[in-house]
Write a structure and sequence with these properties.
M1Pi_N; S-methyl-5-thioribose-1-phosphate isomerase activity; 17% strand; alpha/beta; Four Helix Bundle (Hemerythrin (Met), subunit A); Translation initiation factor eIF-2B subunit delta; Rossmann fold; 11 strands; seven-stranded mixed sheet; single chain; IF-2B-related
Length: 282
């Protein structure tokens, strides 16, 4: 379970950083079924596997924090293997619940900010932002959504499909380079986040030009997500450079293909951050 989860995270098979954090945390439950001769042996195995999960994607702050929370709460506090396993089980459940609760409350807070007839633009695939849109539509609001494809993996197509399944939401899928054309028709930009570290938002590549263009055109940018993704210290973001084959299937001699997964957006380009604790102005 742990090895499979590491491979899945490395392959970025899931686009939601919160879901990745939950899956990584739950993967540690595999250790509860293993036999250990001593509590020290259990703790060494916990440290080794927690480290492997964190290294699987060093760009995901929520994954890092979730796995680290389990690890720190268990090490050096148990007198027996059974006690260590019980602590681990309790922490896994607590961390997962905290993540899920944070997402639900952040989505609920964001849902209240939508207005009937609003047009917004979104980028990437954020389960929290999608939940907010769905809740707002269920409250009776009719919404129009412009969705960027999020190339080169076309993650936005999944977002558009999910929006199309929500009553009262009219989605429009567009190529990324058309953002300047359609932003002027939007009341605001609503996106999720991978994390915010210090004064920088890290999110799917394409977020920076979107936020900068929105600021130039006077369109507010709203970021929605769990407060667990806002990091003040103890985490150094590391970008991922994905396979060149996602950009060009067959390599061409003399061409260096660049495919970063994320870009860095100064928080000065953000107007609001909505988390489970409320709306935070920048």
């Amino acid at each position: 379970m742990i090895d499979e989860t590491v491979e899945e995270i490395q392959g970025m098979q899931s686009h939601s950083s919160s879901l990745i954090a939950i899956k990584a945390t739950q993967a540690l439950s595999e250790l509860l079924d293993r036999e250990y001769a001593s509590v020290e042996e259990f703790e060494r195995d916990l440290e080794r596997n927690a480290g492997a999960l964190r290294r699987a994607n060093p760009s995901h702050a929520s994954l890092h924090n979730a796995v680290r929370a389990v690890e720190r709460s268990v090490l050096d506090v148990s007198g027996s293997v059974d006690e260590a396993k019980e602590f681990t089980r309790e922490m896994i459940d607590r961390v997962v619940e905290d993540i899920e609760t944070g997402k639900r409350r952040a989505a609920a807070n964001a849902a209240e900010t939508f207005e009937d007839g609003e047009t917004f633009l979104t980028h990437d695939f954020s389960t929290t932002a999608l939940a907010a849109v769905e809740a707002a539509a269920l409250d009776g609001n009719y919404l129009t959504a412009y969705v960027m494809e999020a190339r080169p993996r076309y993650i936005g197509r999944g977002t558009a499909r999910m929006l199309a399944a929500i009553d009262r939401v009219e989605p429009h899928l567009m190529v990324d380079s058309a953002l300047g054309h359609f932003l002027s028709e939007c009341d605001r930009v609503v996106i999720g986040m991978d994390c915010i570290v210090d004064d920088t938002l890290y999110n799917r590549v394409g977020t920076l030009p979107l936020a900068a263009t929105a600021q130039e055109l006077g369109v507010p940018v709203v970021v929605v997500g769990s407060g667990a993704k806002v990091i003040e210290e103890g985490f150094a973001f590391q970008n991922q450079h994905r396979s060149p084959s996602e950009v060009m299937l067959e390599p061409v001699e003399g061409i260096a293909i660049e495919n970063p997964a994320y870009d860095a957006t100064p928080v000065e380009y953000i107007d609001q951050l909505i988390t489970e604790t409320g709306i935070h102005e920048f």
